[in-house]
Amino acid sequence: GIQVEQSPPDLILQEGANSTLRCNFSDSVNNLQWFHQNPWGQLINLFYIPSGTKQNGRLSATTVATERYSLLYISSSQTTDSGVYFCAVDSNDMRFGAGTRLTVKP
Amino acid sequence: DGGITQSPKYLFRKEGQNVTLSCEQNLNHDAMYWYRQDPGQGLRLIYYSQIVNDFQKGDIAEGYSVSREKKESFPLTVTSAQKNPTAFYLCASSIGRRYEQYFGPGTRLTVT
Q1: Do B85 and B63 form a contact (C-beta atoms < 8 A)?
Q2: Residue A86 neighbours by CB under 8 Å, 6+ apart
Q3: I need a surface site. Which of A23, A68, A75, B29 has the fewest CB within 10 A?
Q4: pLDDT digit string (tens) for B16-38?
Q5: Burial class for B9, CB neighbours closer than 10 Å (0-12, 13-18, 19+)
Q6: Nearest by CB to B42, which of A30, A48, A97?
Q7: Per-residue model confidence (pLDDT) at position B1
C-alpha cells in the first residue's frame, strides 16, 4: 500500500518563528489533507489540497502531486500552534503519516 | 449546530466484554469512517461506509464490527476478539468516499 512519511518528527520553535513541515507519499493520490491534533485529541481540518497552493491566515500549504509531496508552512508561530500535525492521503483508502509534533515556546 | 458527536469521551471495560462506541453526524454526509490511534502514531482505518446498509473493512478490521442502519449513525463494536483494544477511537464523515473528511472528538477506550 501507499507509504506516507512526515518530517521532521519533532520540531521545537520559539514564538514568532516560521516553519515548514513536509509530507512525502509513495504513489499517486486522489486527495490529501492536513490536520492539526490538539492536546485533547481533536483533529482540526487545516487544508484539503490534492494539488496546488492554498492559504489560510498564517498557514499555507502546497502539494506537488507529480513529485509526490506536500508542504505545510506556518508563519509567525504562536503557542496555540503546538500539537501534532498530520498529513493524510487517499489512494485506495485514507493513509495517515506518523505526524510532526510541534512545540512552540513563549 | 452541525457536527459529529462521539460518546462517551472515556470508556472503561473489563477484558472479555464487548463494547459499543457511538458516532452520530448531522451533516447529511453519506460516508462515515472509524479510525484507531495508538500513542505517538497516526490513525489507522478500521471500517468505512459509503451508504446506508453497506460497509467495508479497512486495514485493521479484525476484532471489530459495525452497522449502518441510519445515515446519521455508524456505531463501532469492539469485540472480545480484539487482542489489544485499548486505544483512542475517532469517527469521521464526508460528503462522499473521496471527499474531505471531518472528525468527531474521539473516545478513549481502556480495557483492563
Answers
A1: yes
A2: A6, A34, A35, A36, A37, A43, A96, A97, A99, B42, B43
A3: A75
A4: 999 999 999 999 999 999 999 99
A5: exposed
A6: A97
A7: 59
